[in-house]
Amino acid sequence: GLLTEYLKSNNIYDQLTLTKGVANGVMYLHSHNLVHGDIRAASILIDERGNPRLADTGLLKILDNTPLMRGRGLASVYRWMAPELFNDLKRTYASDVFAFTMTSWV
């Protein structure tokens, strides 16, 4: 299911447990030198046991400071993007953490 549906129908404990699961997923990617690049509510799916799964890995990349892809479809992700991405368009661990925080805040 979708994150937004899950959050509406579960208590705060389950919501915090889910948030921790997403954080663990981001940490796993970073421990393998990967940057997700598109963390937002729509890219977090919930499996049948209530575990979060990071999806929408179209911007996933090995951290090498390659410029962020420009083009169609990015307008919908601007809300979740770290401010530095508007200047130099380089995805980093920090931009993933910013996007995770924005997603968790909502």
UniProtKB/TrEMBL annotation:
Q: Which UniProt keywords apply?
A: Kinase, Transferase
Name any Gene Ontology BP term: signal transduction
One Pfam family assigned to this protein is PK_Tyr_Ser-Thr
GO MF annotation terms: ATP binding; protein kinase activity
- UniProt cross-references to PROSITE patterns, sorted A to Z: PROTEIN_KINASE_DOM
Annotated Protein kinase domain ranges read 1-106
Keyword Chaperone among record annotations: no
Q: Does the keyword Kinase apply?
A: yes
One Gene Ontology cellular component annotation?
cytoplasm
Q: Which PANTHER family match?
A: SERINE-THREONINE PROTEIN KINASE (PTHR23257), SERINE_THREONINE-PROTEIN KINASE WNK4 (PTHR23257:SF958)
- Name this protein carries in UniProt: Kinase-like domain-containing protein
Q: Which organism is it from?
A: Rhodocollybia butyracea
Q: What is the lineage of its organism?
A: Eukaryota, Fungi, Dikarya, Basidiomycota, Agaricomycotina
